[in-house]
Design brief:
By secondary structure, the chain is of the alpha+beta class. It has one domain: Chloramphenicol Acetyltransferase (2-Layer Sandwich). Helices cover about 35% and strands about 30% of the residues. The protein is elongated and about 55 Å long.
């Protein structure tokens, strides 16, 4: 496979073979295949891994933020970013990642359940800027004492095994 990468800064085009990517990138072969797939389908959320947890209580946002920050600190996968250097993807684990959970109150919407479904549909399609962060975490309040935790991760930095470790913590 040959991948063409446009370097906007230099107005040049770099042509790389799969072998060159494997040789020069610190991504695993599986990660490289996902990265190449994302390069071919830049607008597709194909590699988004979305989970929604429906909690039958109001969550203390400060406590949740603190717990989530602790989780980020203890999880290399959540602190991993992907930078492209000369057309070659490189993963880097940040020493720390300051992430503020978004809080969305849908309880005043005329039909909160529909507003939630619409919000989720929009966010499921959003692309990550993998050089900054590979996940999105949001608490949504729908009224009647219900909170939904929306957690979307890019498959490039997490898989089933790492998700199980994240949830165990």
């Amino acid at each position: 496979m040959v991948l063409t990468v446009n370097n906007i800064d230099r107005q040049a085009q770099v042509v790389l073979t799969t072998e060159q990517l494997v040789e020069h990138s610190n991504l695993s072969k599986s990660q490289l295949m996902i990265w190449m797939g994302q390069q071919l389908e830049t607008e597709s959320p194909l590699y988004n891994m979305v989970l929604c947890f429906y909690l039958q209580e109001i969550i203390d946002t400060e406590c949740f933020q603190q717990a989530f920050s602790t989780l980020i600190s203890s999880s290399d996968a959540l602190r991993t970013i992907i930078e492209t250097v000369n057309g070659i993807p490189q993963q880097r684990v940040l020493d720390q990642l300051d992430y503020q959970i978004e809080i969305v109150d849908l309880s005043n919407e005329s039909v909160p359940e529909q507003a939630l479904a619409d919000w989720i549909a929009i966010h499921n399609k959003q692309q990550f800027n993998l050089s900054q962060c590979s996940f999105e975490s949001t608490l949504l309040y729908t009224g009647n004492g219900q909170t939904v935790w929306y957690f979307n991760q890019h498959h490039l930095t997490t898989d089933a095994w790492s998700i199980s470790l994240i949830y165990k913590n």
